[in-house]
Amino acid sequence: xxxxxxxxxxxxxxxxxxxxxxxxxxxxxxxxxxxLWLVDGIPLTRWDVxxxxxxxxxxxxxxxxxxxx
Length: 69
What we know:
By secondary structure, the protein is mostly helical. The chain has one domain. It has two helices and no strands. Helix 1 runs antiparallel to helix 2. The longest helix has 22 residues. The protein is elongated, with a radius of gyration of 14 Å. The N terminus is likely disordered. Pfam families: UPF0060. InterPro entries: UPF0060. One of its GO terms (cellular component) is membrane.
């Protein structure tokens, strides 16, 4: 199963298709937030930081799930 094209380079770091999609989405969301802050100079609100944290926490749930072995 191929990952979505928008996932880009983040998908190449993971083996499972589900993990690739979830991790890529979280990585892209966090990268966009950091880009807004560092490159565009837009100050982050607490909601931006909370949203990035929720995305990373969701990725951790997918990445740290038991693999059934």
